[in-house]
Design brief:
Chain A: One of its GO terms (molecular function) is CoB--CoM heterodisulfide reductase activity. The complex is a heterodimer of chains A (191) and B (300). Helices cover 54% and strands 0% of the residues of chain A. Chain A has 191 residues and is mainly alpha-helical. Chain A is globular, with a radius of gyration of 20 Å. The chains are: A mainly alpha (191), B alpha/beta (300).
Chain lengths: 191, 300
């Protein structure tokens, strides 16, 4: 299968943005601030890529992303779909001889990509579910029946049973306009 | 301690209560048999998912995890949980907010809007580490609680990533070749088996399962090859998301790649439940995608 997002709305954005701009030194600082790790200490040994379970089955190279972070190659980093192939297993972070957390560099880049409206739909749907139910994986009827058979209440002792806690959660997410942005980006792909 | 029991606020997460309720039921019952009482943590939400949610905005991830922690602070109880994803969110955010003033101030500023404040008064534990800790339970007490030894079974242990990694931010000492869950498995009368690349990820995390299922399953498939080569009758783990990936994942692997494994996948609490005499019905093993019967036939 060809490399891509398989999402026409997102591909269209890249027609304007893909590989068009030069480096942005602020990008390095932003990645280091959000990821709370010193990307610029990297000497490109490749231990990270060698430890990565995603590397052998894709073109995703964590070392390349760390280099992009250091070089300030913002657009190249944030538009590459490989950004979303990190399983966050943290093997690279444990093994990095420079004490960098490459996994958190990826997480920081994903956060920055969201600010550019670049984020796969499954992430946005998880946000909507948490906003409306409190759970990324909510309860369903088959499960409710199984819970009752086990002697548990149909709804767990969470926001499911106590929905009065939901407004607090929604207020926290609204503070960051997270749901609003997720809704907007998702709706762009629907027409 | 209350009535001789170590009490914890039980943080449920999503996948255990909403997909594998047997894990939740088993955790409550099995822990009670070894002196641990899990109390309801009312109004908790998704941890929230460190990969799928944290990838979008880490600031919100900190604030939402802190809200869950504060619910336990208000109870005055430490948290116990049974999922590695929850462990990363709840344990790590708790430790980071205790340590870094800038993060704590940032989070508390937002939480003030909902009349909450992170104080840093509790600790967070995975139930598996409480089982292993001799001050709370310990391997011997687990062994003594067994009424139906899992004799003659070979079990491959999957630790999962976020329980142990990043190791610098954990209280464990070894993430390259740990053996303590094997000790907990062997205490049930089963034989734990070692297999190639034991510490490799299950493939589910970081939102990859939702973003590129085939890629994620290919990682799982590699693990299944290695587990099968070692002759395991079942896989055990301490994370319902890893469980989902191995269990439902085997069905998806069959559909997508035409490869059939049929390896039962049981959370350590389900395994412990069986060893303590709970029936497969009490553990809702019928909700598993992969039939546990070949494994159950060996022990029942």
């Amino acid at each position: 299968m060809a490399k891509g997002y398989n999402d026409p709305a997102m591909e269209k954005k890249f027609q304007d943005r893909y590989y068009h701009a030069a480096d942005n030194p602020e990008f390095t600082k932003e990645v280091e601030r959000i990821g709370r790790t010193m990307a610029h200490m990297c000497y490109q040994c490749g231990t990270c890529t060698g430890s990565c379970p995603s590397a052998p089955r894709s073109s995703y190279r964590i070392r390349k992303f760390v280099r992009r972070a250091v070089m300030g190659l913002e657009r190249e980093a944030l538009t590459d779909p490989d950004l979303w192939l990190c399983t966050t297993c943290y093997s690279c972070t444990d093994r990095c001889p420079r004490g960098i957390a490459p996994t958190d560099i990826i997480m920081a880049m994903r956060n920055l990509a969201f600010k550019w409206d670049i984020v796969p739909r499954n992430f946005l749907k998880t946000i909507q579910l948490i906003y409306t139910t409190g759970h990324g994986v909510p309860n369903n009827d088959v499960n409710r029946a199984a819970r009752v058979k086990l002697g548990l209440d149909a709804e767990p002792e969470t926001t499911h049973k106590y929905p009065e806690f939901l407004p607090g959660i929604q207020k926290i997410m609204d503070h960051y306009k997270m749901k609003e942005n997720a809704d907007r980006i998702l709706s762009e792909g629907e027409h | 301690m209350h009535n001789g029991m170590h009490e914890y606020a039980f943080f449920l997460g999503c996948i255990a209560p909403n997909r594998y309720p047997g894990c939740e039921a088993a955790a409550i019952k099995t822990s009670r048999n070894v002196g641990i009482e899990l109390l309801p943590l009312k109004g908790a939400s998704c941890c929230p998912a460190p990969g799928a949610f944290g990838a979008v905005d880490l600031s919100v991830w900190y604030a939402m995890a802190a809200r869950n922690i504060i619910l336990a602070e208000e109870m005055g109880k430490d948290i116990a949980l049974i999922c590695n994803g929850c462990y990363k969110s709840i344990y790590e955010v708790n430790e980071r907010l205790k340590e870094h003033d800038d993060l704590r101030d940032q989070v508390n500023e937002v939480l003030a809007e909902v009349d909450m404040e992170f104080k840093g008064t509790i600790d967070v534990y995975h139930l598996a580490e409480l089982y292993y800790d001799p001050k709370i339970c310990g391997v011997e007490k687990i062994r003594e609680s067994v009424v139906r030894p899992l004799d003659g079974t070979k079990i491959a242990v999957h630790y999962g990533c976020h329980l142990l990694k990043p190791i610098k931010e954990r209280r464990f000492t070894d993430a390259e070749n740990p053996m303590w869950i094997e000790e907990l498995v062997d205490a049930l009368g089963a034989e734990s088996v070692q297999y190639r690349n034991k510490m490799q990820c299950c493939g589910a995390g970081g939102g990859v399962r939702g973003f590129d299922l085939a890629h994620s399953l290919d990682i799982t498939n590699e693990k299944l090859i290695n587990v099968t080569e070692a002759g395991a009758d079942a896989i055990t783990e301490v994370c319902p998301f890893c469980q989902l990936q191995y269990d439902r994942g085997q069905i998806e692997i069959k559909e997508k790649f035409g490869i059939e494994w049929n390896i039962p996948v049981l959370h350590y609490n389900e395994l412990l439940g069986l060893a303590q005499g709970m029936s497969p019905q009490e553990l809702a093993l019928d909700l598993h995608g992969i039939d546990c019967k070949p494994f159950l036939d060996k022990i029942l």
